[in-house]
Write a structure and sequence with these properties.
single chain; 99 residues; mainly beta; globular
Length: 99
């Protein structure tokens, strides 16, 4: 896997924007066609909030890597600490799902 395959280390060039911080975000709908479920832009590039409560501080566990991450964080659960629900960063996100 290269750093542009998963867009870690800020290496991918999206929508003609240069890598290294110049292409932090993509235009909605620009990443390809809709999935079989009717969704688009589900490729990630943000660390994902989970419902799991971290013992001790009540924060939520974060999972995965994001566009600033080194390769070691791509499949890593950041469960050593929980993040407060008021925490906000451009590389944090969540997925909406219907059960």
């Amino acid at each position: 896997m290269t750093d542009t395959t998963a867009n870690y280390n800020e290496a991918a060039n999206w929508n003609g924007r240069p890598p290294g911080g110049g292409g932090l975000f993509t235009t909605v709908g620009s990443a390809g066609s809709y999935s079989a479920y009717g969704t688009c832009d589900q490729t990630g590039n943000v660390m994902e909030w989970t419902e799991t409560v971290f013992p001790g501080n009540g924060g939520r566990v974060r999972y995965g890597g994001h566009f600033y991450s080194p390769i070691t964080d791509i499949n890593y659960i950041l469960s050593r600490y929980g993040q407060e629900l008021t925490f906000a960063q451009s590389e944090m996100g969540f997925r909406v799902a219907r059960w």
